[in-house]
Design brief:
- The complex is a heterotrimer of chains A (256), B (435) and C (563).
- Helix content of chain A is 53%, strand content 14%.
- Chain A has two domains: 124 residues, Rossmann fold; 99 residues, Winged helix-like DNA-binding domain superfamily/Winged helix DNA-binding domain (Arc Repressor Mutant, subunit A, Orthogonal Bundle), CATH 1.10.10.10.
- Chain A has a four-stranded parallel β-sheet, with helices on both faces. Chain A has a two-stranded antiparallel sheet with strand order 5-6.
- Chain A has nine helices and six strands.
- By secondary structure, chain A is α/β, with parallel strands linked by helices.
- Chain B is an alpha/beta fold.
- Chain B folds into three domains: 185 residues, FAD/NAD(P)-binding domain; 58 residues, no CATH class; 161 residues, FAD/NAD(P)-binding domain (3-Layer(bba) Sandwich).
- Chain B contains twelve helices and 22 strands.
- In chain B, a hairpin with an 8-residue loop joins strand 8 and strand 9.
- Chain C is globular, with a radius of gyration of 30 Å.
- The two termini of chain C are 35 Å apart.
- The chains are: A alpha/beta (256), B alpha/beta (435), C alpha/beta (563).
- Chains in contact: A-B, A-C, B-C.
- At the A-C interface, helix 1, strand 2, helix 2, helix 3 and helix 6 of A face helix 5, helix 6, helix 14, helix 15 and helix 16 of C.
Chain lengths: 256, 435, 563
């Protein structure tokens, strides 16, 4: 049997949901794989939702909003784009960034809606089933997706993504503005750091481990791991459990 | 109820409904007078609407319900205005209410009366007489008000004094054979909106020349709407009435009885668009279907209309034939044969089709002269209500406004806009009297 | 409210056949049966038309008889039918927000017509998702907003003036804002107006005289909209008049900015001398300057083509009117009108067409693939009927060009947050049944700003906009959406006061109060939800679109977590 992917769409009420309705009214046919969740604005789509979706075995997720400038809520779609960019970067760590898409569809673009859905469905078919459904990968992958989700809801990343437009588009009271390049540098490092830290936290939840153990597991330089451990200790997310020989073993203090 | 704020809207089609809803939403009480047993007018009978191909009843039904539930709207069905006294600010209007023989406020709409009614074969006006029903009936499933009625001319009890099966069957005890014609007087009417819509011409000539009623496969556009409608007589599966075969080739004939020196000289305004729409819906049911539209000018001026026509040509197998129809003949298999003068080649040609659909002419509604007499308003030379193009919703008499096809053939969006326009004038009048 | 939330969830599911629109492709009875197997579903049925009075009565009956406290309808789209069903369950005694809509028509059976099986499976998934959200729905109250009983009409042409006059007559304070120095819009450019012999200036004078008499009406000429804040009932407007700013407070806004005449700069050798537009002809007619003996009018210049697909609807009547004016003055002048399809719908317009024929105006049809060619002193046009090209001598060629959208429509649309359609005209809420409304409550559209309209139609639409506006302005208060953002008491401790939400809210609805706590002003919040998905501590909750509700939908589709 051919692979029929599960595709989830988040559509904003005013433009893209109306565009999807117009595709219906015009009887424009498209593949039946998509299931739509209506939200009032694409800005409502919490990054968390995307990871929840992949954890639940969904193969591809598409977010649609109003065209830039057309947002019924003025700027929600710009915020959606910022969040989407973060999610895309996070997903690239597990090689799943091609399974998400952000598109602008207006209320008068029934055709465009159908075209995008068709094209995205084909793309996901080509990529094949979500690796989450592969028993040989699922264990590690789900743990990593969980780490991604934890990163996406972390204060640091949410504060950065929430302030991106304010920082890069408006001047502060001293008349300074952060260049987009500089912001992106900071942001990308932050995204990667948070991901690694959350993987450490999750790994230490299973068992106490040394820096060396973690360095092997995460395939990273031990000194980097150590610096993350120190920050996580500072955040009270990790503590030292015991010392075996001369090697300190760490444990996660994360509660269930 | 504050009586000085009453407005009477005559006609419960889409124009009357919109006018009533606007006024009611302004806190003005509306009496909506409808001759038929339910509101909805012609729009309720249509399958889909152009240029969005929205299902007609789908977008109309919420408005019907809104009217029915609105605390500022009183719906009078089976009712006609008989007399008007007074003037703007203080009209008194006498309305003749015909008996329904079923108590409107008691009936649950369950249909038990209709199931037991032994009188069958009563033509259903809503299906353009293409179907028949019992003497106790409801015109269509989503009718508003959602109550049954008994056809007084056909009912066995009313005519012969025997039967009363429905009385026994009705658990709600809603049947009331004592109902009589009743003349009610509505007082303190500030102003009136006339929105009685239109009829479709069924003149013998040239319809007979086109084989209508001689050949079952020559039908009017409104009949086509019912035949292709999911809730219509064929359940949405378009078939020829002669032999039940699915048509593969349909001719749509424009300007039947209109734009003609022999019949009506004016243009009915809406046929170009609804014919394209009908051809498109037919094609959706069967994508091998071919349509030929025989026309003089394609009139597609409103929003999105030209695009709709273009789509029909490129995606729905519609071919436009600029032509003048001579006649429609019929062969032994009841196939209509269109005989026409082709303007492109300047030759007389013939085309055999499976079905011919006639875009018949919009005419003023039956009883327009009586209506004009009662309200003391002028008609124009085509017998539509006379209006001034620069003051479009005003009639010749103060306090009487109009909207929709009763003064000029027009499509639904324009009727709806005009209805709101007429409501604005009525609201101005109400406010002026208040101040 | 908490005791309501904890009470047993009893969901009723109603599957609509929508005639055959849904029922013709998928088995609605089976869908109703399937619904019964879902958690918390206590009742299900299928109806021919759930939205009919019969269907609504069935919902009410089922709610009462089965003590249901959540209702799910699987049918068309919430965009048209949600208010109806909400009202219905309210009448049945439930809070209207305890209703959830499942779209199995517009986004399922209509778009998967060739795959009934897949459409059926999709319908099942969508119902399951809808039921899972319904289970988590909570009661909400609508918010009451006061209405400022005044209006701003943008654009002082025929539609704007008529709208403003009607609002004035209805007793509402009205501000008419016109960017030009004088009122009148395109009426100022015209000579006579069809279908009568009336002078455009006469009609304009009549309207302007009424404007002057109007007590509640204030006109701002040479004025431009600068900023718009607020929402239905309470807009704060800033306009710039010449070099100073004026602030207005109004309850509703009407867009009546009209359209622009297209200049055919590269078409048919247009030179503004002996090849002119109909608009330029109007000026010559007014000044009685027509010397040409052979006049050729060409229709559909720059319209009904690949660039501009539409018919501008007023040009045929304009050409006929101008041809008749010339013929009336000088019956012996030769006038040919080269047309594609003559647009004279209805009674009077068609009569006008006949009059022009009777007056000796020659009508020659051309097709888009064989456009007329202007060659020195003749116009060459292929005539289908005689299957050859004919040459018509001319002294004057008059081109009928379409009305096109104003080039500042985009700017205005962004200020008002309303959409444009592909030709950059304003896009109404529904082309069929809401022709005068925008999707945004409290903002209306009339006249050529929406689509090319003649004077009669612009007048009607101006009045119509006044009626639509009147439905709001005649009330002291109206109810607005209750699905807003808030910080529940149990989340108050989460908030660390980072203020990201304050910056991100496009409506300035979030502030810090005197106790340094975040407050969300309910009347300003539109419920977009961006603050919640941004909130660094996930303290903000969006009513009716909570994380819990959305995640339950996701899981209902994906199945429980794969792990």
């Amino acid at each position: 049997m051919s692979f029929e992917p599960k595709i989830l769409g988040f559509l904003c009420n005013w433009c893209s949901y109306a565009g999807a309705d117009l595709a219906g009214v015009s009887r424009i046919q498209y593949p039946p794989n998509i299931r739509v969740i209506r939200v009032m604005c694409s800005g409502r789509v919490d990054p968390e939702f995307i990871f929840d979706g992949f954890e639940a075995g969904i193969d591809g997720i598409i977010v649609m909003g109003c065209h830039p400038g057309d947002c019924h809520y003025l700027e929600g779609n710009y915020e959606a784009e910022k969040k989407f960019n973060m999610v895309e970067k996070l997903l690239s760590f597990v090689d799943m960034n091609e399974r998400i898409r952000l598109e602008w569809v207006s209320a008068s673009e029934g055709n465009r809606f159908a075209e995008i859905v068709t094209e995205f469905t084909d793309k996901i078919k080509e990529l094949g089933p979500s690796p989450v459904k592969d028993p040989s990968k699922a264990n590690v992958l789900l743990k990593n997706i969980n780490a991604l989700k934890m990163s996406a809801v972390s204060y640091r990343l949410r504060a950065l993504v929430g302030r991106e437009r304010a920082l890069t588009e408006q001047e502060n009271i001293y008349g300074e503005k952060v260049s987009l390049e500089r912001f992106n540098d900071v942001f990308e490092n932050a995204i990667f750091d948070e991901y690694v830290r959350n993987r450490i936290v999750l790994s230490l939840k299973e068992d106490t481990k040394s820096v060396k153990d973690l360095a092997i597991e995460l395939n990273m330089d031990p000194s980097k791991i150590l610096s993350h451990i120190l920050i996580l200790k500072g955040r009270s997310q990790v503590s030292m459990d015991k010392i075996v020989g001369i090697t300190p073993l760490y444990i996660s203090t994360l509660e269930e | 109820m504050d009586n000085s704020r009453n407005v009477v809207v005559v006609g419960g089609g889409i124009a009357g409904i919109q006018a009533a809803l606007d006024l009611a939403d302004m806190g003005i009480h509306v009496h909506l007078i409808e001759k038929k047993p339910c509101i909805g007018g012609k729009m309720a009978q249509l399958d889909k609407t152009f240029p969005t191909l929205d299902c007609s009843i789908c977008i109309l039904a919420p408005k019907l319900s809104e009217c029915y539930r609105h605390k500022n709207i009183t719906i009078h069905t089976l009712s006609e205005v008989k007399n008007v006294k007074g003037e703007r600010g203080n009209f008194v209007i006498d309305v003749l209410k015909n008996p329904r023989y079923i108590k409107e406020d008691v009936c649950t709409g369950c249909g038990d009366c209709s199931r037991v009614c032994p009188v069958r074969g009563v033509y259903n006006y809503f299906d353009v007489n293409l179907t028949t029903q019992a003497a106790a009936y409801i015109p269509f499933p989503s009718a508003v008000p959602p109550v049954y009625l008994i056809d007084g001319e056909k009912c066995a009890y009313i005519n012969y004094g025997i039967c009363e099966l429905c009385v026994k069957a009705c658990g709600a005890e809603a049947i009331d054979f004592n109902q009589k014609e009743e003349l009610i007087s509505i007082k303190n009417i500030n102003s009136v909106i006339l929105a009685t819509g239109y009829d479709l011409a069924e003149f013998e000539n040239p319809l007979r020349g086109y084989g209508y009623k001689k050949c079952k496969n020559v039908i009017t556009a409104l009949e086509f709407e019912r035949l292709i409608c999911a809730s219509g007589p064929l359940g949405g599966h378009l078939k020829r009435l002669s032999d039940g075969k699915e048509p593969k080739k349909i001719a749509f004939i424009q300007c039947v009885n209109s734009r003609s020196y022999k019949a009506k000289q004016y243009c009915s305004s809406i046929c170009c668009m609804y014919s394209a729409k009908e051809a498109m819906i037919a094609h959706e049911h069967d994508n091998e279907l071919e349509s030929y539209i025989f026309y003089i000018d394609v009139r597609a001026g409103n929003k999105g209309f030209q695009k709709f026509i273009n789509r029909g040509e490129t995606e729905y197998n519609i071919r436009y034939v600029k032509s003048k129809i001579a006649q429609i003949k019929t062969d032994a298999q009841q196939n209509p044969i269109i005989v026409y003068e082709d303007f492109e080649s300047a030759k007389i040609k013939k085309l055999k089709v499976d079905l011919a659909v006639l875009a018949t002419c919009i005419i003023p509604p039956d009883g327009i002269e009586e209506l004009a007499n009662i309200f003391k308003i002028d008609l124009n030379k085509y017998n539509f209500i006379k209006t001034d193009p620069f003051y479009p919703v005003l009639t010749s008499r103060e306090g009487i406004y109009t909207c929709g096809c009763v003064h000029e053939p027009m499509d639904i969006p324009r009727s709806v806009a005009e209805a709101s326009g007429a409501a604005a004038k009525a609201a101005e009048s109400v406010r002026e009297v208040e101040i | 409210m908490p005791d309501k939330i904890s009470e047993e969830k009893k969901i009723g599911v109603f599957v609509c056949h929508c005639g055959t629109n849904i029922g013709g492709l998928v088995d609605c009875e089976k869908l109703a049966e399937y619904s019964k197997t879902l958690p918390n579903v206590k009742y299900s049925e299928h109806n021919l038309y759930t939205c009919s009075e019969t269907g609504l009565a069935a919902i009410k009956k089922a709610v009462q008889e089965n003590d249901l406290n959540r209702v799910v309808v699987a049918s068309c789209t919430p965009r048209t039918h949600e208010p109806l069903f909400r009202e219905c369950i309210e009448e049945a005694g439930l809070n209207p927000y305890l209703f959830n809509f499942v779209n199995i028509r517009d986004q399922c059976t209509w778009v998967h017509m060739k795959d009934p099986e897949a459409a059926y499976e999709k319908s099942k998934d969508l119902i399951r998702m809808g039921v899972s959200k319904a289970e988590k729905l909570e009661e909400l109250e609508k918010i009451i907003v006061e209405v400022n009983p005044s209006a701003m009409v943008i654009g002082g042409g025929v539609s704007g003036i008529n709208c403003a006059l009607s609002l004035n007559n209805q007793g509402f304070k009205t501000f008419l804002v016109e960017k030009d120095k004088e009122l009148g819009g395109r009426l100022k450019e015209l000579y006579q107006v069809f279908p009568s012999d009336k002078q455009a200036s006469e009609l304009l004078n009549e309207l302007v005289a009424k404007v002057k008499e109007a007590k509640n009406l204030t006109v701002y000429t040479s004025s431009k909209l600068k900023s718009v804040n607020g929402f239905i009932g309470n807009y704060e407007i800033e306009i710039e008049q010449r070099n100073h700013n004026v602030n207005l407070n109004v309850g509703v806004i009407v867009v009546a900015v009209g359209a622009t005449s297209y200049k055919p700069l590269s078409l048919f050798n247009y030179n503004s001398k002996n090849i002119i537009t109909q608009l330029e002809l109007e000026n010559k007619l007014r000044d009685n300057q027509i010397e040409a003996n052979d006049i050729v009018m060409i229709q559909c210049v720059g319209s009904r083509n690949a660039d501009r697909e539409y018919c501008s609807s007023i040009c045929c009547m304009t050409a006929l009117k101008n041809a008749l004016i010339i013929k009336k003055r000088e019956p012996n002048r030769n006038i040919s009108i080269l047309f594609r399809d003559l647009y004279t719908p209805g009674t009077i317009y068609e009569e006008y067409y006949r009059k022009a024929r009777e007056a000796g105006v020659l009508f020659i049809k051309y097709t888009p693939d064989k456009q007329p060619i202007i060659d020195k002193s003749v116009v060459k046009v292929y005539n289908q009927y005689i299957n050859s090209e004919i040459s018509i001598p001319f002294d004057l060629v008059v081109l009928a060009t379409p009305l096109i959208a104003n080039n500042d429509n985009r700017e205005l649309a962004q200020l008002l947050k309303v959409p444009l359609e592909e030709n950059k005209f304003f896009l109404e809420a529904h082309v069929k049944l809401r022709p005068i409304d925008f999707a945004t409550d409290g903002v209306y559209i009339c006249g050529s700003a929406k689509w090319p309209a003649d004077i009669s139609e612009s007048t009607t639409q101006g009045l119509a906009a006044a009626s639509r506006a009147g439905t709001i302005l005649s009330h002291k208060t109206i109810e607005v959406e209750g699905a807003t953002a808030y910080i529940p008491d149990w989340n108050k401790d989460l908030c660390k006061g980072c203020e990201v939400c304050i910056k991100i809210c496009p409506y300035n609805a979030i502030v810090k109060d005197e106790n340094n706590e975040i407050q969300i002003i309910q009347a300003l919040c539109k419920g977009c939800g961006t603050c919640a998905s941004t909130c660094t501590k996930k303290a903000i909750v969006i009513r009716h679109f909570t994380n819990e509700q959305i995640i339950s939908e996701i899981l209902a589709f994906g199945g429980e977590k794969v792990a």
